[in-house]
Amino acid sequence: MRTKSLKKNKINVVTLGCSKNVYDSEVLMGQLKASGKEVAHEEEGNIVVINTCGFINNAKEESINTILDFMQKKEDGEVDKVFVTGCLSERYKPDLQKEIPNVDQYFGTTELPGLLKALGADYKHELIGERLTTTPKNYAYLKIAEGCDRPCSFCAIPIMRGKHKSTPIETLVIEAEKLAAKGVKELILIAQDLTYYGLDLYKKRNLAELLENLVKVEGIEWIRLHYAFPTGFPVDVLEVMKREPKICNYLDIPLQHISDDILKSMRRGTTKEKTTKLLKAFREAVPEMTIRTTLIVGYPGETEENFQELKQWVANMRFERLGCFTYSHEENTHAYNLEDNVPEDIKQDRANQIMEIQSQISWELNQAKIGQTLKVVIDRKEGEYFVGRTEFDSPDVDNEVLIDASKTYLKTGEFTTVTITDAADFDLYGEVAVIN
């Protein structure tokens, strides 16, 4: 009869939070597999590693609830061990150890070797780019830098992730080649701040040179840019984007607000005039570019006048993609010293008003696409539709293209040409184009 000690351990990695955490979980899983461990992502496993998010209140609550759920499973004998890593653990380790002491061990964001050791694995330095990807096979995240040097008043990321640290170009090219060999066709470049890439290594902003190298990787068809900071944006990137067909005409550039008073208090290092000028330069250099931004409403001291200015600006700028968040008052940030004086219901109402304006803009821009023929990658089949995206859309956050599955068979992960036949606020409907 088998005893419990002979049971084969299976490690279940649970990922919460942003794409940077997805990437970190994939690296962890690649290291575990290289040490001969059985590993799964968000499936069954008797050993659990929770990769937490500690960015804003909602994310922190989700992380804590997930830890508590697994502690209950441990108590019930459904899992044997629970380890916690990631941003929440980095930021609040002493508090977590005190409040939830029966977690087997807590690890911060830079303690991968220690976590691997606790899981009975060795950290292998030579495993550049060896990750177990958890995204659909056609796209993967490529984290080009860690940490952030920006002083934004509302943001706890430097506390959790440390100073900006770029990954060398040659390392990223090796990683991209390995991903392409696995069938990945789209690279989504992520960092806390793409704009800063290379300053620490090459003494200059070097995103353009990185892109020049990545476009040479065979098999990669799309390269997408996420999380660029507006201050000091390297404009040579726009020239590469215009010249290189592999680089999507797409830029995610979180702007957060537009009122000069609020931008100053947020310590964003820019003004309304500079921001508007920068966006105008984007539009002039790459007229077909889709710009995605995110905004924060309800920041301490945001008056009705500040908000109306933001609203008018959103209506005027007509961003192709936009998300809006309510301000979260975070300990140990510069803004925590300010009074969080905008009531929660007003914050939510302001976010709703912004998204209502954006919904109308998105509908109008989508209507203009009816009749156009676009290159689309198929991400998945859902119900009666194949669901795809154009180069102007990032997975999970942007618009999708729905194609009737009863009329056409399409392979997920493949590119196809689609004629847009109809459009809603955030989705397009299309048919596979007949190419003569």
How would you describe this structure to a colleague?
The protein is of the alpha/beta class and 436 residues long. 35% of the residues lie in helices and 22% in strands. The chain has helices at residues 19-34, 57-75, 87-99, 112-118, 157-161, 169-181, 199-202, 207-214, 236-243, 260-266, 272-285, 304-317, 344-367; strands spanning 10-15, 38-41, 47-52, 81-86, 105-106, 139-143, 145-146, 165-166, 186-190, 222-225, 247-252, 290-297, 321-326, 373-382, 385-389, 400-404, 415-423, 427-432. Strands 6-9-10-11-12-13 form a 6-stranded parallel β-sheet. Strands 2-1-3-4-5 form a 5-stranded parallel β-sheet, with helices on both faces. A hairpin with a 2-residue loop joins strand 14 (373-382) and strand 15 (385-389). The protein is globular, with a radius of gyration of 23 Å.
Name its key features.
6-stranded parallel β-sheet; 35% helix; 436 residues; globular
The assigned structural class equals: alpha/beta
Helix content: 25-40%
Oligomer: single chain
Overall pLDDT? 91
Radius of gyration: 23 Å
Q: What strand line-up does the widest sheet have?
A: 6-9-10-11-12-13
Q: Termini, distance in Å?
A: 68 Å
The residue ranges in which pLDDT falls below 50 over 5 or more consecutive positions are: 1-6
- E-strand count: 18
The gross shape turns out to be globular
Please count the helical segments.
13
Major beta sheet, specifics? 6 strands, parallel
Q: β content, as a range?
A: 15-25%
